[in-house]
Amino acid sequence: MExxxxxxxWLDDMNLSHPLVIAGPCSxxxxxxxxxxxxxxxxxxxxxxxSGIWKPRTRPGNFEGVGAIGLKWLQKVKEETGLKTATEVxxxxxxxxxxxxxxxxxxxxxxxxxxxxxxxEIADALKGTDKxxxxxxxxxxxxxxxxxxxxxxxxxxxxxxxxxxRGFSTYEKTKxxxxxxxxxxxxxxxxxxxxxxxxxxxxxxxxxxMIFDVSQTAxxxxxxxxxxxxxxxxxxxxxxxxxxxTPKTLIQIMKDLRIRKETDEEAEYNNNxxxxxxxxxxxDNQLIDLLGKRMKVSDGIGELKKQKNVAVLxxxxxxxxxxxxxxxxxxxxxxEEFVLRMFKAIHQESINHQEKIINS
Length: 360
Description:
Strand order of the largest sheet: 1-2-3-4-5-6-7-8
Largest sheet: 8 strands, parallel, barrel
Number of strands: 8
CATH architecture of the largest domain: Alpha-Beta Barrel
Radius of gyration: 24 Å
Order of helices and strands: HEHEHEHEHHEHEHEHHEHHHH
């Protein structure tokens, strides 16, 4: 993507004193609901009022959005509050209707990003528009697919571009609805530092009480903004009730987030240091998660050894592991002393797990 600095211009032109904030309900439900939320978000840090009009659902039969009538409600939001508007589009018909109703910002959802055919259809429908277009990451952690969608839009002469990081689907049970895979977002930032990146803590967490922490991590990693689902009565929302916050809670989150505003060299140093520390925190959490998974495997080995009355310590196996890990460590710049100390500690914890099972 040549001249990628053009993509950041729309954000720079806003001259914001805080990160970009896109907020509003997961789904437009009624005109009254949409306008009530919008009026509560008026005169806050919110820059764009978002609302789902068409809701792609995993299984049919669930609420799939109010459809085009919701676009008229978004027009009223702009008329009554002055807030700019945003919604998701998934095909040419959605694009045409959104442009007809002068929606200011459009985003392409994770289910659409996985299909180059869908993205190309949307890009063709948007060709030459001056609207802001954001691309959510695909449901699977595929950086090339994500960037490919951006490139298709850029090739359609759409210059006001950005991406939304909403996490990635996984079969594993984790504390997240969609695992962040922060390293992939960091890689994207490294390759394309001029591409605005917005974090979606609502879809990453799936739980409103985790939104602040994920938002803070995103800001520490120099994300440009947040898109947070906000509802006047979250518990009774027609979709994604658990991950929506009230306007009052959103306003408090904005107040509590630590946002560095310095502009001198010291501020740049602190910003870079904060970014690197945030990356270390993420990697440390991944290490703990992997070690926990390793010990579960060790528990399974302990069960098998108990059934066959086999000794816990298998010296040949242990020596082979240690030799392999020393070689692997050398290739990654890790000293033999460090690898030995680390794997001896891991091995001892594994022995403790297996002995506990065998002696139970």
